[in-house]
Amino acid sequence: MAVMNYAVDTATQQLAQNDVLAVKNAFLKYDIEEQARLLVVMPISEAIAVLHECPLKHVQHLLDRLDEMNEEKRMRHLASGLGLICSEAEPAGHYLKNTVMCHVRERIGWIIGLALLGIVSGLIISHYEDTLSQLVLLAVYMPVIAAAGGNTGSQAATLVVRALAMEEIRTRDWLAVLWKEFRVALVIAGVLAAVIIGRVIMFSDGSTLPIGIQLQDVAMAIGMAISIQVVLSTSIGGVLPMIARACKLDPAVLVSPVLASVVDITGMMIYFTTVNWMLGLS
């Protein structure tokens, strides 16, 4: 028991990096039951320091074991300190063992709040009724704007969530992530805009247009709007998981609904503002 006594005795002092690695190596020599019991008696800060150096899968096994030992409070403190879960974003325990109502209680607040926020999209569309009445063709490509923003944002968010889980990046790397996603978004936006412009020109030549406005102008306006939307959505999707992690919220639970609501609202604003500006519509 000398190693376990060493770990507990040194818990009263701030562990240096070398000490943390030494304790971690000794900690992992014990079976998972003894490791879980040691986590119960160690101070939170030192336990987090040791767990931070352990493989993520092993940490999850230890947290599950603490939950089985009725040490839910300790488990949540450790998980929150590691940035893995938060009581307001993810239920404790095994996914399949939790009841349906447990999952509903943890999710319903976000869903209802963001659904009400979605009303803003409808208000934006109603504000631009005159624009739609002048150029009905714009209504055809409204779903394209929303879908493009949602798809690109979700892709970026999924990749960042995975990178966070694999500890390839940390919240302090948000600027590097933003810069990378911004550059990726520029390339995707350019390609997607070219496809949409070609689609409008080739398949919308029978549409009724206001006097003085050419189909090529409409195509360019829609392409510009979708480019801006893709760049913005991808950038937001890249940093949103890191914001959630910094706020001790679970990115897997929070990011998708928040991103969908933000993309819907910003998409409609960008679409109508860009089209009105480029085509000179009232």
The secondary-structure class comes to: mainly alpha
Reading off the top of the CATH hierarchy, the class of the largest domain is best stated as Mainly Alpha
Q: Let me know the CATH homologous superfamily of the largest domain.
A: SLC41 divalent cation transporters, integral membrane domain
Stretches with pLDDT under 50, minimum 5 residues: 1-13, 86-90
CATH topology of the largest domain: Tetracycline Repressor, domain 2
Largest sheet: none
- Name the CATH architecture of the largest domain: Orthogonal Bundle
Strand portion: under 5%
Please compute the radius of gyration using only Cα atoms: 25 Å
Number of strands: 0
How far is it from the N-terminal to the C-terminal residue, by CA? 79 Å
Number of helices: 14
Report helical residue fraction: over 70%
Mean model confidence by pLDDT: 82
Oligomer designation:
single chain
Element-level helix/strand string: HHHHHHHHHHHHHH
The coarse overall form would be elongated
How many domains make up the 3D coordinates? Answer: 2
Summarize the structure.
The protein has 282 residues and is mainly α.
Structural overview:
- The protein is mainly alpha-helical.
- The protein is 75% helix and 0% strand.
- The chain has two domains: 86 residues, no CATH class; 163 residues, SLC41 divalent cation transporters, integral membrane domain (Tetracycline Repressor, domain 2), CATH 1.10.357.
- The radius of gyration is 25 Å and the shape is elongated.
- The N terminus is likely disordered.
- GO terms for molecular function: monoatomic cation transmembrane transporter activity.
- Pfam families: MgtE (PF01769).
